[in-house]
Amino acid sequence: xxxxxxxxxxSITSSFQNVADLAEEVSDLCRANSGIDEDSADTLRxxxxxxxxxxxxxxxxxxxxxxxYANVQFHDDRYEVMLIDExxxxxxxxxxxxxxxFDLDDIDELPEGGFGWMLIRDQMDTIDYERRDGxxxxxxxxxxxxxxxx
Length: 150
Known about the structure:
Blueprint: E1 6-13, H1 16-34, H2 38-59, E2 67-74, E3 78-85, H3 115-123, E4 126-132, E5 135-143
Antiparallel strand pairs: 1-2, 2-3, 3-5, 4-5
Helix pairs in contact: 1-2, 2-3
């Protein structure tokens, strides 16, 4: 079976423990199926965890027990992770910029949020968001480059 035929689906309910478990499972799956190294798998785990945490915290207002779906698809030169939830839409119908303007010398005034989206935008090659039929679809895609191989 070529990588382009591999598709894996997951379903969890919203909770921060389930988020951590699913992020780990997706990271392990990508490492096993695409051959990425441990550092790349750890970065993917962080990106998936950040996106899932945002779903629980913002789309579901911290409520446990709400559905979250993940679809991981492998292609010959990349993998993609699609996260789907039935929560509130992203503000303005788009992914937050994730750019934070702050003074590193003023630790007390560091912003509370925005770092997760900054990380995801920096580490993933493509991120797309769509609201369709009452659901949020967040797609994150990463090329598999030779430097990230084991």
